[in-house]
């Protein structure tokens, strides 16, 4: 049985919930792959929205209960985009992390010279200021750890090193990188890789890892590829060593969330469950998320709408350890 239970009533956000934001985002096409963070007791989702002209925008949505979200009427402002080399095509798939009391965001930036990871601060309005752009030319799915380790920020990322038959370059290994200033990043080493012929042949980190007594708990996405057919995006989880996060402790053998509902199976890109935001209802005094804490996972469904699935730390840890 899956560790995750879907919220009753279908997707929590669809294109019908979006305001018209002229000129591009009138009658927008889709809303998916959100970042999530708890800010002042409310849940913030940073939504990826797509226009009928295939432009990408970011929009904030707020909730008091983590379930019912009200999107704002204005796009997120992003300052400092001139730091991104080349021509920017899309800025997308944000991941929010509270790092030692500071809310930071990592986004993917598709450019005419490959995909760059962009790190930003988040101001009091929820607008973004670019701090740094990773100089590695083709890397995606970057997420920050919530604390520094020996003075270094840590980031999981996924170099795009595997060409997909008839598709874009993607990747099958999650790497750990470190940085003193969030600008210059250095590779520490591989963390774990995709499993050939399994549900997670290609992989990438989902929401930022959370600190539990069993290790860093990471939800990730895995892709099962099908030649000349539709790839299937699913979610699994892994536990990484608290002191050396390149050391994998355990990992779900099977996926724990897969496209099953009609709105996950059918849409702009069919058969996609793409985990990108997760909140915990509490941390203990030592900064750990305890076993009975409730985790809310926000995920893009079929690149069209947003789903919510809930579990506890204990259930997710057991899913990693079960064979
Ligand atoms: C991945 C990323 C995601 C997207 C997914 C399914 O490679 O581009 O943003 O949701 O593919 O299309």
Textual characterization of the structure:
The chain has 323 residues and is mainly beta. The chain has a single domain (12-321), classed as Glycosyl hydrolase domain, family 43 (Tachylectin-2, Chain A), CATH 2.115.10.20. The chain is 4% helix and 50% strand. It has helices at residues 262-265, 313-321; strands spanning 5-6, 30-39, 42-50, 56-63, 70-75, 78-79, 88-99, 102-111, 114-122, 128-133, 139-144, 153-159, 162-163, 169-170, 173-179, 186-193, 202-205, 210-212, 215-224, 232-240, 248-251, 273-280, 294-301, 305-312. Strands 6-10-9-8-7 form a five-stranded mixed sheet, with no helix packed on it. Strands 17, 18, 19, 20 and 21 form a five-stranded antiparallel sheet that branches. Strand 19 (215-224) and strand 20 (232-240) form a beta hairpin. The radius of gyration is 18 Å and the shape is globular. The model has no long low-confidence stretch (mean pLDDT 96). Beta-D-mannopyranose binds at residues 33, 93, 170, 233, 269, 272, 274, 300, 303.
């Amino acid at each position: 049985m899956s560790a995750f239970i879907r919220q009753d009533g279908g997707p929590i956000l669809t294109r019908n919930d979006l305001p018209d934001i002229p000129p591009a985002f009138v009658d927008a096409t889709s809303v998916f792959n959100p970042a999530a963070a708890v800010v002042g007791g409310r849940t913030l989702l940073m939504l990826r929205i797509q226009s009928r002209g295939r432009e990408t925008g970011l929009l904030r949505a707020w909730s008091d209960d983590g379930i019912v979200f009200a999107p704002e009427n204005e796009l997120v402002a992003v300052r400092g985009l001139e730091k991104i080399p080349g021509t920017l095509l899309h800025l997308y798939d944000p991941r929010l992390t509270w790092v030692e009391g500071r809310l930071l965001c990592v986004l993917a930036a598709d450019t005419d010279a490959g995909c760059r990871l962009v790190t930003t601060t988040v101001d009091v309005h929820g607008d973004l200021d670019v701090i740094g752009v990773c100089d590695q030319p083709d890397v995606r799915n970057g997420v920050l750890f919530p604390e520094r380790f020996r003075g270094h920020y840590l980031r999981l990322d996924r170099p795009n090193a595997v060409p997909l038959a008839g598709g874009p370059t993607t990747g099958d290994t999650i790497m750990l990188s470190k940085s003193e200033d969030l600008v210059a990043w250095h590779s520490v080493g591989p963390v774990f890789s995709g499993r050939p012929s399994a549900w997670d042949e290609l992989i990438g980190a989902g929401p930022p890892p959370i600190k539990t007594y069993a290790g860093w708990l990471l939800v990730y996405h895995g892709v099962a590829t099908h030649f000349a057919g539709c790839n299937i995006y699913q979610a699994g989880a892994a536990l990484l060593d608290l002191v050396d996060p390149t050391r994998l402790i355990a990992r779900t053998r099977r996926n724990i969330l897969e496209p099953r509902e009609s709105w996950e199976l059918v849409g702009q890109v069919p058969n996609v469950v793409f985990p990108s935001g997760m909140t915990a209802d509490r941390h203990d005094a030592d900064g750990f998320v305890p076993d009975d804490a409730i985790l809310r996972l926000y995920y893009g469904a079929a690149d069209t709408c947003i789903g919510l699935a809930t579990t506890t730390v204990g259930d997710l840890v057991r899913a990693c350890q079960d064979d």
